[in-house]
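Researcher: Checking consistency across runs. Here is Olfactory receptor again:
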Amino acid sequence: MGRLNKTVVTEFILVGLSNHPQAQVAFFAILLVIYLLTLLGNSLITVVIWTDSQLHTPMYFFLSNLSFLDICYTSTSAPQALANCFIKRPTISFINCFSQMCISLYLGVTECFLLAVMAYDRFVAICNPLHYPLIMNGRVCIQLAVGVWASSFFLTVIPALTMPAEFCGPNVINHFTCEVQAVLKLACSDTYLNGIMMFASGVLTLLIPFAFILVTYIRIGMAVLRIRSAQGRNKAVSTCSSHLTVVSIFYGTAMVMYVRPQTKSVSEQDKLFSVFYGVVTPMLNPLIYSLRNKDVKGALKRVAGKKMLT
């Protein structure tokens, strides 16, 4: 009977903002606008990059991967959070919750490694410009992209296999979605191993890529200082500024969420960080790259001009 009592939980209740009903409508409106902007912005960036031949370069190839990833990442949680805003008792099955959690982890890990590859691309372009077309040829770019998506999958499977299978109550997740930290707090089995695995995974997928990006940009900075012309320095800095902004926002919020001691309860601040990390950041990426990038703005104008002519 004890074994049965530990496996009775077959679904979870998502709290969201049910403790603040007066904020539900405002939250729904803001989240809907952000989600629609995310879909529009990232879809537009992807289409423009693939249709404009002038953007068929390694940097924009990886940017199109990032835009596609952001669409997928936001879509794993935002539609459900929107639907749950007006449901009195929003629930999700154990299987769906576990699937959502694993997919979110996978896409988050993929973004970490993709940002590191994009930093390497900028390093080669600035520090070794003469050999850049040879080093970052089409075949290498595809191999790097496939390597990022595939390695992220295997790095996600290991923590997923250690997830506890026993939830004996309560079954109330104090979150908008099945965020991994919020779910682990409900496990009735020992989560010590899970905590170790999550910390190790955070180090491997957050700190190591971040350290690589940091070292890469230190070397880029040293190379930029050796450029004699101000125009050359400004051009080198402009190609890196958008990527650095995205890295700062993404890693800043991710480290606050995952690379820190975990408490026994989920605070309202944790939920806000999760929304910013999972929804706001993907919306900002296309804005950052389009507003601060002359090539993308030029391509958008060319595409708009073709549409008007047709």
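Researcher: Does this match what you'd expect to see?
Model: One thing to look at in this run: The domain at 21-309 is CATH 1.20.1070.10 (Rhopdopsin 7-helix transmembrane proteins).
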